[in-house]
Amino acid sequence: MSRKHRIIAAGGVILRERSQGLQVLLIHRDRYDDWSLPKGKGEADELLPETALREIDEETGVEAVLDLRLPSVRYETPKGPKISHYWRARVRRQRNRRPDQEVQAVTWFPVEEAIAKATYPAEQELIAQAVRSADTHALLIVRHAKAMQRKHWSGDDQRRRLSGRGRRQAKRLVDLLAAFGIEQLISSSSERCVQTLQPYAKATGLTIRTVDALTEEAGSRNPKAVRKYMAKLLAGLDRPTAVCGHRPVLPEMYAGLGLDAAPMVVAEVRGLHVADGKVLATETFKPTA
Q1: CB contact at 8 A, 54 and 127
Q2: Crossing angle for the helix pair 48-60 and 164-179, to the nearest 10 degrees
Q3: pTM over 0.85
């Protein structure tokens, strides 16, 4: 007997603040007769945060920004085992959504009422955890996208550029950085790192701050400066931020953040959720290009 394929979905606990207090958004589906959190299955080459945002938008009309990663929920369905991944999310904007065959109602509830209204105990706990967790900013550590091979580059290595594959990877990073509402871009001053963040900078109008200490050359000579820079960034983090670095320098970057280094492939992103200068949770996003 063949083993059933695992179904993977993503969604979020969407919160908004009102004068009467915090509210949670739930959807009602007649075919299941339930009140639940918005979620759905991924599409080809989508990263999980992208799936979560698309499904939130499709099912609620909310354009959201993701925050803290929440626990995943595993359960059995007639089509096989399913795992749903969740983030806490805030509203960027909301449009009116007409009822359709999938979702018949989209309603904001006060927190306690939302917990009581939610049909599934696992989602009740997700709402409670999202509400009691500290507010965080995302700090995304990016290894630069695929660069031209050194043997094919005769100039200054700091000017070595991305390959065609690397440029495609950089473009794919735009949606991931947008998912976490990145407001600050920091990069090694080497061209391949700057180019990795340029598509997002162009899409948002942000300026990329370049840091010489994060280059391969400077970072190898003075790893203490790398650790000091990252520790200072963590302690004062006041907005969602992405930092692009190089494979040889990444261990020192992580050391400055008080984290163990982990191998990263080109264009991989490690997401850190930070509150009051401390990393509360981490997650990893592998490139699809």
Answers
A1: no
A2: 50
A3: yes
